């Protein structure tokens, strides 16, 4: 792997117990800081190509990392892209949507009521009628193709073989975690940090997806629900303070929606001695840095 993708973090500088902690910098894989969405889109785009589709359609909010990555990747791979965006045109374009439009994405705003239909097959049929023969990618690319692409994140740690025991990643839908579980060697422990509040059914969908990818029977995994800081996109004062000091000390950018909550959780778990001495813990920096622009800190 590119040797600079894995960076060791000195936890003793924070007065924490000495453990070996590294960050897997998926944000460095593209100059856009796109991270896990590159993996989630890989096989979805491949499938669209095999089916000979030229238009990719997907769903997201006005700051969606998924829509941002879809517009960028679609553009570089010669697809047309269309984003069904929850929101009002009157609110203007966020920097995320401005980027997406610059990459040629057509933006179609829908209200909350219509956005709620985004998982509905009948709605997808209507979208195809309206916009033409498009390949529909679910929100977040959180389908089996997306999860199986995330399994390839494990490959980054395999040649050359990195010695590690625990892999920690932020969970929105949990499909990235499911892909990791599906691909990880059985002796690894995987921990997901939920960024949404009270999504207890996530364990079931993660287990199902990992199983359908042919894995998940071996390695030990769990989802920690204690670090959502009030819910999706909610930022506590402690979280903000943590992110700003982390960025200053380690010169690694985080954003508050996913990677900030992840690192906060990892540091807190280290402080509470929840890891065994001598373990090498790897936290996955899943990218999303375009969304940092939404926070005026
Ligand atoms: C989408 C996203 C996640 C969550 O991925 P899931 O597969 O939905 O759990 C984590 N981190 C970042 C930066 C993301 O953009």
SSE layout and pairings?
Elements: E1 6-9, E2 20-25, H1 36-50, E3 55-60, H2 65-76, E4 80-86, H3 95-102, E5 106-110, H4 112-115, H5 121-131, E6 134-136, H6 144-150, E7 166-171, H7 175-183, E8 189-194, H8 202-212, E9 220-224, H9 237-250, H10 259-271, E10 280-285
Parallel strand pairs: 2-10, 3-4, 3-6, 4-5, 7-8, 7-10, 8-9
Antiparallel strand pairs: 1-2
Helix pairs in contact: 1-2, 1-6, 2-3, 6-7, 7-8, 9-10
Bound molecules: pyridoxal-5'-phosphate.
Descriptive account of the structure:
The protein has helices at residues 36-50, 65-76, 95-102, 112-115, 121-131, 144-150, 175-183, 202-212, 237-250, 259-271; strands spanning 6-9, 20-25, 55-60, 80-86, 106-110, 134-136, 166-171, 189-194, 220-224, 280-285. It is α/β, with parallel strands linked by helices and 297 residues long. Helix content is 35%, strand content 18%. Helix 1 (36-50) packs across helix 2 and helix 9 (237-250) crosses helix 10. Bound molecules: pyridoxal-5'-phosphate. Pyridoxal-5'-phosphate (PLP) binds at residues 35-37, 65, 140, 142, 170-176, 258-259, 286-288.
């Amino acid at each position: 792997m590119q040797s600079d993708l894995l960076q060791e973090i000195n936890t003793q500088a924070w007065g924490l117990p000495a453990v070996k902690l590294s960050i897997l910098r998926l944000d460095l894989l593209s100059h856009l800081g796109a991270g896990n969405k590159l993996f989630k889109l890989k096989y979805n785009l491949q499938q669209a190509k095999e089916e000979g589709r030229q238009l990719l359609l997907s769903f997201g909010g006005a700051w969606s990392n998924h829509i941002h990555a879809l517009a960028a990747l679609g553009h570089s791979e010669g697809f047309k892209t269309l984003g069904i965006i929850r929101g009002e045109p009157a609110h203007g374009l966020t920097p995320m949507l401005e980027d997406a439009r610059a990459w040629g994405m057509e933006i179609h705003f829908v209200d909350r009521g219509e956005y709620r239909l985004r998982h509905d097959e009948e709605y997808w049929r209507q979208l195809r009628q309206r916009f033409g023969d498009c390949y529909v990618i679910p929100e977040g690319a959180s389908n089996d193709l997306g999860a199986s692409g995330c399994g390839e994140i494990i490959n980054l740690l395999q040649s050359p073989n990195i010695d590690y025991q625990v892999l920690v990643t932020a969970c929105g839908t949990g499909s990235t975690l499911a892909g990791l579980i599906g691909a990880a060697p059985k002796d690894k422990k995987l921990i997901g940090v939920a960024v949404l509040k009270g999504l207890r059914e996530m364990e079931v969908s993660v287990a199902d997806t990992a199983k359908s990818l042919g894995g998940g029977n071996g390695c030990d995994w769990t989802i920690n629900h204690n670090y959502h800081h009030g819910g999706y996109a909610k930022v506590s004062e402690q979280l903000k303070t943590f992110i700003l000091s982390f960025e200053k000390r380690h010169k690694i950018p985080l954003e508050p929606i996913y990677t900030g909550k992840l690192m906060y959780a990892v540091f807190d778990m280290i402080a509470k001695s929840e890891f065994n001495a001598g373990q090498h813990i790897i936290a996955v920096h899943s990218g999303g840095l375009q969304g940092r622009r939404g926070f005026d800190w």
